[in-house]
Specification:
single chain; 324 residues; alpha+beta; 5-stranded antiparallel β-sheet; two-stranded parallel sheet; 4 helices; 15% strand
Length: 324
């Protein structure tokens, strides 16, 4: 098409192409579509703000600054007028799992829900963190009336490029706390030198009763058990395999002595059947005792190499994860 010719609609074309005014409609997104992070209408969901709360909200995401409040404004240490119960509640997707994941019906006024909200980071100066989040009892002392931080979502990833440390107990090298060191947030002493760390899959730490066999019909298995230390477990298994080796050597020596004794007893020119029995006994001993014992010794050595030494392909100690 030449420069002075027009398009079928009679609009002249130039070398520079259409002007911005000609493309203004083409550059527009569908209204209220949410594409490219544009605004999109949300349901008529209203948060029941407590009188002392400051709320920052945008597109279903909330930051609530207030006092400890796990649900309605009648619950939590903030409802009791407690001093030092400040909290920060970061929430997205309020009541998202209600109505089988469809969310609440419009319009709805909602309180915080530690079970139905989509994802949350909760920071509280004074709270019952285990009770509020419905956590299984892992130790004799649940966290009651302590500061707490909880993270809850469908899936959580904690990523540390340089490593991750999960630590319980007091910090080291802090001055001004006396000989007992760092205290709890309200001044209470941390009595245990190493407070527990509990990994609870399925949020259940209850004991299990299982069938224990013909002579022990019921057996109770602890739901929450301590982890094994890799090197200590390795050393224990090494000692067991050494004892198995000693036992195998003793049985092998006993078999060899018995074979020698059988050979001596087999020297009897007056009773031919004794010679035949001696030969049969020694043959059976070589076949079913000596060979099996040697095989047991070899298997024990291979077990040690495969599982109990760091060069083994099934080394029982983790090369990356450590615990105290």
């Amino acid at each position: 098409m030449f420069e002075n010719e027009g398009d079928p609609d009679g609009v002249p074309l130039s070398k520079e192409g259409p002007s911005p005014a000609d493309l203004k409609d083409a550059n527009q997104l569908p209204p209220k579509s949410g594409l490219y992070h544009t605004s999109k209408p949300v349901g008529a969901l209203f948060y029941k703000k407590a009188l002392n709360e400051s709320v920052i909200k945008n597109a279903g995401a909330y930051i609530v600054l207030g006092t400890d409040r796990p649900a309605s404004d009648r619950e939590g240490y903030g409802a009791w007028g407690s001093d030092g119960a400040a909290s920060i509640d970061l929430v997205v997707g309020r009541m998202s799992s209600a109505n089988k994941g469809e969310g609440p019906k419009d319009p709805s006024w909602v309180d915080p829900s530690f079970s139905a909200d989509a994802a949350r980071i909760h920071i509280s100066e004074l709270t019952d963190i285990d009770h509020n989040f419905g956590l299984a009892k892992a130790a004799d002392d649940q966290s009651v009336g302590r500061s707490g931080i909880a993270i809850k979502a469908d899936n959580i990833r904690v990523i540390g490029r340089g490593g991750i440390k999960l630590i319980s107990g007091v910090g080291q090298g802090y001055a001004g706390f006396g000989k007992k060191g760092e205290t709890l947030s309200k001044g209470g002493n941390i009595y245990q030198p190493s407070p527990e760390i509990s990994f609870i899959a399925g949020n259940s730490a209850e004991d299990r009763v299982v069938w224990g066999g013909l002579f022990n019909s019921k057996e109770r298995i602890r739901g929450l058990q301590p982890l094994c230390l890799g090197h200590v477990t390795r050393d224990a298994l090494l000692e067991i395999t050494d004892m198995i080796q000693q036992l195998s050597s003793a049985v092998l020596m006993l078999a060899m002595i018995q074979e020698t004794f059988n050979a001596v007893l087999g020297i009897d020119p007056l009773r031919e059947w004794v010679v035949a029995g001696s030969i049969a006994a020694n043959t059976a001993g070589l076949t079913f005792i000596n060979d099996n014992i040697w095989q047991q010794i070899i298997n024990t050595i291979l077990f040690q190499f495969n599982y109990l030494y760091s060069f083994g392909y099934k080394y029982i100690c983790s090369r990356n994860v450590k615990t105290t």
